[in-house]
Amino acid sequence: MGLPLLALVCCALMAWQHCAAEAAKARHFKWEISNMFWSPDCEEKVVIGINGQFPGPTIRARAGDTIHVQLKNALHTEGVVIHWHGIRQIGTPWADGTAAISQCAINPEETFTYRFVVDKPGTYFYHGHYGMQRAAGLYGSLIVDVAEGKEEPFKYDGELNLLLSDWYHESIHTQMVALSSKPFRWIGEPQSLLINGRGQFNCSLAAAHTQGANQCAAAVNTQCAPVVFPVQPNKTYRLRVASTTSLASLNLAIGNHKLTVVEADGNYVDPFVVDDIDLYSGDSYSVLLTTDQDTSSNYWVSVGVRGRLPKTAPALAVLNYGPNRASKLPALAPPATPAWDDYDHSKAFTYRIRARAGTPPPPATADRRIELLNTQNKMDGHIKWSINNVSMVLPATPYLGSLKMGLKSTLAAARPAETFSRGYDVTLPPPNPNTTVGDNVYVLAHNTTVDVVLQNANALSRNVSEVHPWHLHGHDFWVLGYGDGAYRGDAADEARLNLRDPPLRNTAVIFPYGWTLLRFVADNPGVWAFHCHIEPHLHMGMGVIFAEAVDLVGKVPNEAVSCGATATALMAGAHM
Amino acid sequence: MGLPLLALVCCALMAWQHCAAEAAKARHFKWEISNMFWSPDCEEKVVIGINGQFPGPTIRARAGDTIHVQLKNALHTEGVVIHWHGIRQIGTPWADGTAAISQCAINPEETFTYRFVVDKPGTYFYHGHYGMQRAAGLYGSLIVDVAEGKEEPFKYDGELNLLLSDWYHESIHTQMVALSSKPFRWIGEPQSLLINGRGQFNCSLAAAHTQGANQCAAAVNTQCAPVVFPVQPNKTYRLRVASTTSLASLNLAIGNHKLTVVEADGNYVDPFVVDDIDLYSGDSYSVLLTTDQDTSSNYWVSVGVRGRLPKTAPALAVLNYGPNRASKLPALAPPATPAWDDYDHSKAFTYRIRARAGTPPPPATADRRIELLNTQNKMDGHIKWSINNVSMVLPATPYLGSLKMGLKSTLAAARPAETFSRGYDVTLPPPNPNTTVGDNVYVLAHNTTVDVVLQNANALSRNVSEVHPWHLHGHDFWVLGYGDGAYRGDAADEARLNLRDPPLRNTAVIFPYGWTLLRFVADNPGVWAFHCHIEPHLHMGMGVIFAEAVDLVGKVPNEAVSCGATATALMAGAHM
């Protein structure tokens, strides 16, 4: 990788004193991944743990540091990879941790070392990116502080970390079989929501305030004990909040407290104050909270479901004002989650997010526009999600290696469509419900500016259109705008775009029946996934691949290509 | 592989007419392995199926044929292999289908083609050999008829096939986590026994004869419908019976009918008549049955548990005498399974098995004797099975490739012990319960004759010693003898050996507190597993590896070594 070496060379060229303060660190982690019994919501199931922990250990680093994670796969028969969500992997596309895309899955008993620079401070997380392993609990937090000597553009006295997720009692193996079955079987809603890997199934910490709920027993199992966030009065805390849910869109509120949004997906935003924040799967935020309320009470942290009829009870945690006891339940009812289908509320929040002054502005124009229509379709009795009527399937041999080596027949001859029919009625089920499968690989030229229009539509059933949070690997994008109905690219649509202070993000939602327009610069050679971050939707094909200037990618390490056609070719004497 | 070519050359050298009759066929199969919903015992679970079937398709061939199975792994995140149980793989050790031993597991979406000759007629089966995938339902029958123009040494009018197994409701993933857990969790007894993949949980087809049992409802699900074997009166049938259980030792009996044993593990035996036969996991038999009973009735085929306190109800099927209706339940009670701990009955059956005249006799003496003491042990709070106090762990890179390439540090420097302490008291728990893990690789010189003494002992708890059926890959062995207590190698033990007509087999049981002595010739270069065929016992380390004349192994196909250290070395320019 040469990165630590580069740092050394850099130091040698500079005054040592200056350098010592500025020098980025190499941070080493040795992880072992295994299945283990765990009770995330007090019901014992099998989770994927790291070093015997669930969620995995929090990585904490400073901007510019190089992270080394020596990952041993101790699963019995399953491969594994870890994706570092929000880290752009500039110059290290093979460390992006996407099976079948950036690397070969790490086989059982094998070790693979991820080495990458965390170049930008922010709130990130990591998670499995093979099959539905994220939904099996393979995730953890990755927090990057500003480089030594730098300062955040806002002040706070302390930090609280909230990694949010949802949890199913069925194993991911059963879930994957269900989603791939013919006839299709939907996996349903998650049984629980988790805060830092803990929840309570079939009971409520706030039963006194919740009709028909059973009060949870006093904690007997630390694995599902209520999460307590200790705070002191009259201080300001930075809450780092990220959602790695499989399915659920979430809303976070804290009783009696306002939240000031200051960061989204590792980028600073123009601060604004809200009562609650929405988090779609893949989102991360920092919000500031000031402990300016009655100090005799504790307060509920409440996380509920949005965007789908909520069949999963909110997750609750306790904001514990010192010196109150942690076990003192808040007197007031937990804040109510906004109605699941109050999209005006959702849009008000999402549309309000703008870049903080000083954020790099987008290029004024794009070189290319790719319009991606999301539809739900049928194929041979299976149900799929498709993009421009093609449902994504991943290859046996990861793209990064096979495209770099120019292996024949890696890609289908026909490139996927750049647009969809202008007359498509997004308010109705697809007129042609049948889809095909394909690789959905878009080849991007180096340093071109690309606009992507994500167009939502009606699903197979009438009057159904779901939210889809799309996540881009290897890049941040500017979210230029949102609109309802079909995108036309006309003056009215143009008027909805914000070229002045659009936020930089790596995840953006499309609202039901709506569109979202993103812009990014293809300045990071590699092969990058761009997909709906909802785990079952990705499993059902909702994604595309950006193969970006692969000829400019450096030598891909052998460990990342030691499978499939790349291994065969290299063993036969080919070179990377 | 050159085998079909060899056949052609052979034909070219011979008179065409003769050759046409004798020519072995290439038999091609295209299989896809996937997880799917299935109800083996009327409770729906996930099974591993082949081409949407469970059990997998039956392969039927003639001796001398070459089998080509093009196997696509359509599991989502799990590797897979298939072992062809009882096929010696002469000259094709890379096709033995043992992950981490003979080949790299086939990754999801990859295809691997097994090509091998079935050189010997007999009753075989195939099954997964990675993790505990056999217990997930990855198995099927493999039946080899005599070559064209040859005859079996016994006559029969028809055939019935009975592939027997047991079935757990917990997924193998949960089972593997349990067995690897600290503290250890035993998986318990299987929920059901299956005949040809079908059983009935929590009800009995013969409830009228079974105290406290519920009569099964009239079949509503063909996946668990009672198995019916249609026969005509006054005919002789060959029953091909094989056991691929995960745990259970079985006993098969058929109401009112005698069974004449004629084949064991693909070798003819001296025919003998019994009321019932024992089958340990890994065993296969052919028995002849003559339909000489009252033709107005149907008869029960009953399969019950032996060797462990039976907590699993017998599996029942119907022997349907034409022209009775298949649905006519037999009037008599199903034959009772002998008491689980009636080892005299078990030994009487097992000891009676002798080679049919004409079977190759064993060499009169052996060049080497390896004595393997089976003990149950503890390691760091885990429970293991050990051989000479070492519990087997498999490597990341399969042995066949790594040993063939002479990769450094593939094997531990110290070779495993060839014997155990003569003073070891097999009637007591191990005096030193602690074990270590190791590779347990025994290196065998070409064409040497090897004796193996399998010595059973007391487990960790007092007064517990279990049966263990040991299965050898790549070879048949002669079962020279059995004894109770510790093997001493003295005159009394020698007197228990049968050098005149010992049966050739690939699986042999050791009885509680007893020993079994096997002899085989190391005439098949390769790396071969030798292990207890009980799935959880193998998972817990109960096995050894025979690395046999690896320098004489032909070129291992790249597809079998495209993982781990062999892939890395070959990609770096090394040659196989």
**Which pair of protein chains has the largest interface, and what are the residue counts?**
A-B, 43 and 45 residues
So how many helices of chain A? 9
**Uncertain segments of chain A of ≥5 residues (pLDDT<50)?**
1-21
The fold-level CATH name of the largest domain in chain A is Immunoglobulin-like
- As laid out across the biggest beta sheet of chain A, the strand order is 10-9-12-17-14-15
Helix proportion of residues of chain A, in percent?
A: 10-25%
Mean pLDDT of chain A: 94
**Class inferred from helices and paired strands of chain A:** mainly beta
Number of strands of chain A: 32
Rg calc of chain A: 23 Å
Q: How much strand content do the residues of chain A show?
A: 35-45%
Looking at CATH, the homologous superfamily of the largest domain in chain A is: Cupredoxins -  blue copper proteins
| Gross CATH architecture of the largest domain in chain A | Sandwich
Which CATH top level class of the largest domain in chain A fits?
Mainly Beta
What does this structure look like?
The structure is a homodimer of 576-residue chains. Chain A has 576 residues and is mainly beta. Chain A folds into three domains: 23-145, Immunoglobulin-like; 158-352, Sandwich (Immunoglobulin-like), CATH 2.60.40; 368-571, Immunoglobulin-like (Sandwich). Helices cover 11% and strands 35% of the residues of chain A. In chain A, the strands form seven sheets. A six-stranded mixed β-sheet of chain A has the order 10-9-12-17-14-15, with no helix packed on it. In chain A, strands 21-20-25-30-27-28 form a six-stranded mixed β-sheet, with no helix packed on it. In chain A, helix 5 links the parallel strand 22 (390-392) and strand 23. The longest helix of chain A is centred in the N-terminal third of the chain and has 11 residues, at 3-13. The first copy, chain A, is globular and about 70 Å long. Chains A, B: Residues 1-21 form the signal peptide.
